Amino acid sequence: MWYEKELKFCRTILEKMNLQVLELEKDKAPDRQIDFGVRRFFSLQAEYVSTFLRKPFEGETRTIYKLTDRYFCNYLHLILPGESETVLLIGPYISRQLSYEDLLHEAERFSISPQLFSEIEVYYGSIPVLADDSFLFSVMNTLAEVLWGSSRAYRIVDVTEKDISPHPLSPEEELLPMEQTLLTMEDMEKRYAYENELLSAVTFGLTHKAELMLSNFSELALKHRVADPIRNMKNYCIIMNTLMRKAAERGSVHPVYLDQVSSDFARRIELISSQTTAYKMMKEMISDYCRLVNKHSMIDYSLPIRKTLVCIESNLAGNLTLHSLASLQNISSGYLSALFRKETGKTLTEYINRRRVRQAEYLLRSTALQIQTIAQFCGFPDANYFTKTFKRYSGTTPLEYRRSRQHDADGMPS
């Protein structure tokens, strides 16, 4: 191909953005699932073939198509010039990070059971997020002008999956070595003393003290260690994320809580576009990790109770019987029951029901999910039992609770 070098350069840029770039040949299946396997998960092979293996080859030449499918994923594709029929496809990517509540709505829309919900979380967690795809289109416009001569020689067309379909992990960048990204030797003692004090503040959940120290962090640590100032700030954010995670772990916060926060920051760090944004994110890290310590520290609990609490918090919809939780740790049900009540002041059943009802209250306030769906995702497969338990702890039925909160939000008396 006469444009091989330009195409390779374009591919390199896009892959640096963690985007998948494929050259699809007609009548030849690629060696990977283009959509990361979501249609295979829903057993929609015909939709997959139509969307990715047939319709892109039926498009017009000199046209860049932006496809937005019903799973909120975006793809760009175009027919490359030349004798062989080859389509260049970029994606998927999503325009915003989906929240837990968004995914619950999707689970309800596609009738996904609570047992399979974690797979949907993993799927969307693996898709790159481009809150602003203007740079992506700048790259594509540049490539298009190389391929077709000028900006007037091609067009960009937005399509949705219903227009073309019969059916309505990026590797993480390694941390730079500490000596390459922090201060030089003459500042090291001072930096270590500051760093340990900051870690101690986060370990004990002292939010105000830790945030106050951030100004010192800016003075001591945020010197330019690489030529690109944005890359420099990203490197410091990566380090900060690691330090805060370790500090919260020292504060007896279980990794199951840390991983979600840490992974979210890791994704957001690569989207940083200014030094101001990076500095704000560092402050947000301190606040969020201190909040984790204050909310989830289990320093006063024995190991069996720590494990039990983590099991409960990580899977409220799961099988949380006394027998199952005891069996996971190879201890007797009687021992776990007595120990749990001694250390928490509540029976295991009471604690679980309270947590499930609190989660249900949150979903009733913040989502439009059906009450039956909320019951299932809060561990109540029987709607009548959910209503009865909810009323015991909240003093009202789920429907009445939702209506009263809607009235409150509208400024009306409940």
From TrEMBL:
<keyword id="KW-0238">DNA-binding</keyword>
<dbReference type="GO" id="GO:0003700">
    <property type="term" value="F:DNA-binding transcription factor activity"/>
</dbReference>
<protein>
    <submittedName>
        <fullName>Helix-turn-helix domain-containing protein</fullName>
    </submittedName>
</protein>
<keyword id="KW-0804">Transcription</keyword>
<dbReference type="InterPro" id="IPR009057">
    <property type="entry name" value="Homeodomain-like_sf"/>
</dbReference>
<dbReference type="InterPro" id="IPR018060">
    <property type="entry name" value="HTH_AraC"/>
</dbReference>
<keyword id="KW-0805">Transcription regulation</keyword>
<dbReference type="InterPro" id="IPR020449">
    <property type="entry name" value="Tscrpt_reg_AraC-type_HTH"/>
</dbReference>
<dbReference type="Pfam" id="PF12833">
    <property type="entry name" value="HTH_18"/>
</dbReference>
<dbReference type="GO" id="GO:0043565">
    <property type="term" value="F:sequence-specific DNA binding"/>
</dbReference>
<feature type="domain" description="HTH araC/xylS-type">
    <location>
        <begin position="306"/>
        <end position="404"/>
    </location>
</feature>
